[in-house]
Write a structure and sequence with these properties.
By secondary structure, the protein is mostly helical. It has 12 helices and no strands.
């Protein structure tokens, strides 16, 4: 029902008839001000609706597809808000979105496992003989670390691909990509924890992140 409300709300917003609801009103103003693409908004809602099925991703490609349709779509909208129309920025956004989706899935693993839920790609778990029950128990065995290594490595690849476009991405697009600092920080910390996704250090905040974000913002790089 909630997703149907937003499907209808988006249609009404683009007819200049937004629902009498605060978020809808602000979104309507943003659409009018920045000429936001309707397709990206609808794609986010459609993909989130699929996510309500509450099951593990069948494979890494399915997780990447979900990330592209949600996280990357949001980045495309942010680029439009920033007035950036650049094919290299779009390519970077696609890879950053995928990296963000993968990292989010990894970071949420301890939380989901504590509630007897596992969403990590099943194909990688099967490849290393890792069962859902092992994740639910918070296992720190090598096969669990191997699963995390494979998934984290794919996030790292997408992050590197995104940064390979940086010389051709307008400086105006930088604010949309600053959170790559947070993604990189998590990937470095999980590597230092030897890919033990349940390691206590991964639950702590990095006090240097604000400084790192400021420096990237000042340099206008991501």
């Amino acid at each position: 029902m909630r997703m149907q409300f937003w499907q209808t709300a988006i249609e009404d917003i683009y007819k200049d008839e937004p629902p009498n609801q605060p978020v809808s009103t602000e979104l309507w103003r943003a659409v009018r001000k920045h000429n936001l693409t309707k397709r990206w908004l609808l794609r986010i809602i459609t993909e989130r609706e699929k996510g309500l099925e509450d099951r593990a991703y069948r494979n890494l490609q399915e997780l990447e597809s979900y990330s592209e349709n949600t996280q990357a779509s949001l980045l495309y909208l942010l680029l439009e808000c920033l007035g950036v129309k650049n094919v290299h920025a779009d390519h970077a956004a696609s890879h950053v979105g995928k990296a963000q989706g993968i990292v989010t899935c990894l970071r949420a693993t301890p939380y989901h496992s504590s509630r007897r839920k596992v969403y990590l790609p099943m194909d990688i778990c099967m490849l290393h003989g890792a069962s859902q029950e092992e994740f639910i128990r918070g296992s720190r065995e090598q096969n669990i670390r191997d699963v995390v290594y494979d998934i984290a490595s794919q996030a790292h690849v997408h992050l590197q691909h995104a940064r390979s476009f940086s010389h051709n991405v307008p400086a105006a697009a930088t604010p949309a990509f600053l959170h790559t600092v947070v993604l990189e920080d998590y990937l470095q910390r999980v590597r230092r924890a030897h890919f033990d996704v349940f390691h206590r250090s991964l639950q702590n905040r990095n006090p240097l992140l604000p400084i790192q974000l400021y420096l990237r913002s000042w340099k206008k790089t991501y």
